Amino acid sequence: MNRFLGFLYLALLSLLLHSCQQPAALLNNESAIPERNMKATITQQLHYDTLPSASGLEMLGDHYYVVGDDSPYLYRLDKNFRLESQEAIFDTAGFENGRVAKADKADLEGITLLQHQGKPYLLMMGSGSAPARRKAYLYNICGDDICREGAGAHGAKTINIDKLYQQLEQKSDTLGGSLLNIEGVAAGHGKLYLLQRAIGTGQNVLISYRLSEFIPYLLEEANAQPPQPELSYFRLPDINNLQAGFSGAYVYDDKLFFTASLEDTNDAYADGEVLGSYIGYIPFSWIGKQDTLDVPATLILQADPYTGKAESLVVQKREGRGRYRLVVVSDDDMGGSELLEVLLSVD
User: Fold this and answer.
1) SS3 state at 184
2) Distance separating alpha carbons of residues 90 and 92, to the nearest angstrom
3) Helix count (H) and strand count (E) of the chain?
4) 6-15, 180-189, 288-297, 318-327: segment of lowest average pLDDT
5) How far apart are CA 303 and CA 321, in angstroms?
6) Domains and CATH numbers, the chain
7) Quick check: 136 pLDDT over 90?
8) What is the pTM of this model?
């Protein structure tokens, strides 16, 4: 009997220790996905000399829409990724040499599709890391034509979002110890998601707003105030004690897919050497948890890890269980851009 009780005690102790080692997300019956069980493989790679510094990507029908962080244009690609057109979304002054200067650029780092009153809009948002980068642009699309209502002389309505960004900066711990640096924007399931990129020892933060509160603020309706955010904190993979940082977002099914890159820099303003780029996702059931969760992510691979700076993505489709076809855009930091077709598999 004593031997049986001793065995039972050891078994229970082993079970308890094992459960304590599981990620916090397992408390919600979600399966943690180790990086070794994910693989992101490039199946096609294209380069664009005349599309500078791609930083945001959205898909609508058979077209892809791209913004660059130092360009005043919205670029449209066809289903075969050929550049079809470019439309000025704000003043093109300063773009004479093919890139707006770093000190003056709008730094558009995210683009997402919104539906409002039955019409599709493209929302583009600046990173907030400098005064010139605290604007949003709303572009109204009707089918394949551009509707210019409220846009003025250029293709998009300009909205000052400084108050929204100031609200995020008011509490020093809100941004996980980093300066404001919004790098991903995605809408879905009634919410708008912003991804704050970790810099140095800071944290990667997911900022969520209800679209029912965000859109009236964005459209500057009477008495509309900046909406209240919900914050979630995540830990991404690291190399040489440097953590990868969020760079793009896309909602698909019950997941928030993201790109991330790892740069050797402690500055939200300056670029650094790219050590690797990642793809991963956050299950929606993880959003709003109090703990900082380890999020599943994997390096983008060619024969070796891809050394370009992945900036944004869309999910084209799901191919059976655990297989996704993705399109990723990348900034080469030299005035050009790349587009990658990627197969993401999750065992």
Assistant:
1) strand
2) 6
3) 3, 24
4) 6-15
5) 25
6) 36-346 (2.115.10)
7) yes
8) 0.85
